[in-house]
Protein: GntR family transcriptional regulator
Amino acid sequence: MSSPVYIQIHNQLRKNIEDGKWKVGEKIPAERELANDFSVSRMTLRQAIQALVDEGILERRVGSGTFVANRKVQEKMSGVTSFTELMDAMGKKAASKTISYHLTIPSQTEVEKLKLGPDEQVLRMERVRYGNEVPICYEIATVPASLVQQFSKEEITTSFYRTLEEKANLYPGHAIQHISATKATEKIASYLQIKRGDALLRMTQLSYLQDGRPFEYVHTQYVGSRFEFVFEK
Amino acid sequence: MSSPVYIQIHNQLRKNIEDGKWKVGEKIPAERELANDFSVSRMTLRQAIQALVDEGILERRVGSGTFVANRKVQEKMSGVTSFTELMDAMGKKAASKTISYHLTIPSQTEVEKLKLGPDEQVLRMERVRYGNEVPICYEIATVPASLVQQFSKEEITTSFYRTLEEKANLYPGHAIQHISATKATEKIASYLQIKRGDALLRMTQLSYLQDGRPFEYVHTQYVGSRFEFVFEK
DNA sequence: TCAGTAAATTGGTCTAGGCTGTTAGAATGA
DNA sequence: TCATTCTAACAGCCTAGACCAATTTACTGA
Structure:
């Protein structure tokens, strides 16, 4: 890996937490100890810890130690959350049906958002997602073809983010969401089993890798009566 | 002062920007130079800079310098933001028209959300808000009557949050927002100068004081085609 | 004059420590 | 047994450098 050491350590520490090596509420090893384990200076390790604290994953207590914070549901919203996790949190069974999946030429919007080069192709996926068998949203996800050529359809559709991390060592950083409201077209209405003209919650999300490269543009339309976003400020 | 040096420097730097010593887009002195000016190590100064970068006030460019950023809209969304500030950020002139304003008996929802006692009354305000003379949203705000009895209508409608802080020493803490989509009723449509059935972005916000007491419940319906939320995750 | 190259400047990362204040727990005394 | 005091461990904060990579600036030769 070529990324800075403190980013690598940051990812490793997060992995330890995700893998359950360190559980919620537990104290993680002392800074000096971890610095020694990773063979870096304490300042470097502190940078990694600081990042996790900023993300709300860790919590420092002076004189006591650094602990794994217990994330609230709404805090999950602050991370880049998948539909599956979202449905899980609501106690619903997530499912999805792929409408289309193919390499193609990007739209003007996609070129701009994903900062694509000329002649660069994209992988575009159309999906309808369900919670407890009921259609919740219609989604179009676009990623640069260059990023996913090495992966199988299986690897991309089931858990794209995990595949990126594990197979390509690429880590999602921040994302920008725009949320507005619109009405269902005839086509969307049929996919979502609603009436034409029904209210939809429209979200576009542009996700960036840790190095700042945009890597995924998703346009989602949620059934207004079946879905809501919850944010804590 | 007893606060950490990097916090003191952070405040001083922010002051320089607010006072117009460093203008938007301008380069601020180099890290090494500032570190020398403040007589601290570069690492300490970088902590102060980092905080300002996190707040979106400064912007770093490797090999070039650190610049005063022009704040984007979505950055403002991270705080508890007023409609007026929001419109300001978009370069629009904010205005509002009060539809109704009276003490009344709360609805069941309001009792639950605001944790009202039996027979406790509320102040309910209906408003239409405008940006550049165009209707943007229709809003119903409810606060417990007990909280606002000491204030004039003027104090409440112009700047409720400021009044709370200055006159009652009450500080807003966190808030929870629910965002969904719905269609305009005949009544709402006429207020917002749209057609019945047009898509609306529906937000409810329950705001809490720093001590955890809920103090304001706001139900807002934004014209789908004239407004969007932007979140950065 | 202009293009190409070298040097200086800048932020990014990292080291190997030091000192301070807080905290939990052990030792001590009533 | 209970309360107090002491101590070791901890995170917070800070220093004074180092080297790297990106960018800008200055210089040099055609």
Observations:
- The beta strands of chain A are 27-28, 58-61, 65-68, 94-104, 122-131, 134-144, 172-183, 199-209, 214-223, 229-232.
- The CA atoms of residues 33 and 42 of chain A lie 9 Å apart.
